[in-house]
Amino acid sequence: MSKCIGCGVELQSSNKYKDGYTEDESFVLCERCFIIKNYGQSKVVKKTNSDYLKIIDNIGDDNVIVYVSSLLTLNLDYLDKFKKVILVLTKRDVLPKSVKDEKIINYVKKNYNNIDDVIIVSAYKKYNLDILYNKLLKYRDNDIYFVGITNSGKSTLINEMIKSYNGYKGNITMSNYPSTTLGVLDEKIGELNIKDTPGIVINNSIINYLDDKGVKKVNSKKEIKPITIQIKGTGAILIDELIRIEYETIESSITLYLSNNLKVNNININNPRLLDKYVSRFIVNDNHDLVIEDVGFIKVTKQAIFKICAENDIYMYVRNKLI
Ligand SMILES: Nc1nc2c(ncn2[C@@H]2O[C@H](COP(=O)(O)OP(=O)(O)OP(=O)(O)O)[C@@H](O)[C@H]2O)c(=O)[nH]1
Ligand SMILES: [Mg+2]
């Protein structure tokens, strides 16, 4: 049985409603990859993480792990699963240029002791791809697995490396949607043996609930223009009809790092929009970030209490400020 060259799923022609369907098994792409590549849309694939975690658990000790995380939110929830990793922080292009790479590198190294090396890259800008390739060369005799959360940018990075070091366009399917890659893909890049893997799904990330327009909006393709708002007492902010943030503080300044496509508006606390849908509450202390998975983060200078309302339960957490 052959695999789809776009997402790694096993091809089948018997059930149109199951993953890997193709009209003709001599095709190299499944129907879903064909649609994403030609029309930019996606059939949402709902997978349980146990399938993906099984793939990760089966990676042998003699293989090398490249853990890819997006700098939009820097989710490292699954980093502890691995004994030793090369951490690749991608989508550098979305963070302001003024932020020093060194600062981010120190931030992650301080919090994790299984990191062998950290490299900051951007597939879009081809930033530091040579450094990554040259560092990986010493593992030319091993299989190098690219792992991480879904949508972190693994496949885009591998395709960009194929272009740079093999001189032709990579075939791997990339998309704004979660769970694009469905199986393990083997790619020979220059002297490297790279394996692309399906990303781990964060079950309650907002990205799982968004429609086409929504996923396009939250996936930042450009440098973020941070928005700073002075807050005092109680009030509310609306992020593009997706998230309502009510705050309570003596006085603070908050900076939102979100895709520029998301509209941010101060609203009256009595405005009923999204009021009391799914509610979560966070106390964010001085110099901490509130991270909204797959959307971005809010830096808080002085303690604030937030009540967040959205259409669904969404994954958020507090961390020490990144920048
Ligand atoms: N701004 C920016 N966006 C990127 C970059 N690399 C990838 N993306 C975007 O991130 C989204 C996810 O990219 P993929 O490469 O499909 O992510 P993945 O990690 O392979 O996802 P799964 O296969 O679902 O695990 C797409 O919308 C990409 O365009 C980058 O360097 N900069
Ligand atoms: Mg992928």
Summary keywords:
single chain; 323 residues; alpha/beta; Rossmann fold; 2 domains; 8-stranded antiparallel sheet; binds guanosine-5'-triphosphate
Q: Determine the strand fraction and express it as a percent band.
A: 25-35%
Fraction of residues in helix: 10-25%
Counting DSSP H or I runs of 4 or more residues, the number of helices is 6
Low-confidence stretches: none
Number of domains: 2
Query: For this structure, what is the CATH homologous superfamily of the largest domain?
Result: P-loop containing nucleotide triphosphate hydrolases
Number of strands: 14
What does this structure look like?
With 323 residues, this protein is of the alpha/beta class. It folds into two domains: 44-203, 3-Layer(aba) Sandwich (Rossmann fold); 227-320, no CATH class. It contains six helices and 14 strands. It has helices at 31-39, 49-57, 101-111, 129-136, 154-166, 212-218, and strands spanning 64-70, 85-90, 115-120, 143-148, 185-189, 192-196, 227-239, 243-258, 264-267, 278-284, 288-292, 296-300, 304-310, 316-320. Strands 7, 8, 9, 10, 11, 12, 13 and 14 form an eight-stranded antiparallel beta sheet that branches. It has a six-stranded mixed beta sheet with strand order 3-2-1-4-6-5, sandwiched between helices. Bound molecules: guanosine-5'-triphosphate (GTP) and magnesium ion. Magnesium ion (MG) binds next to helix 5.
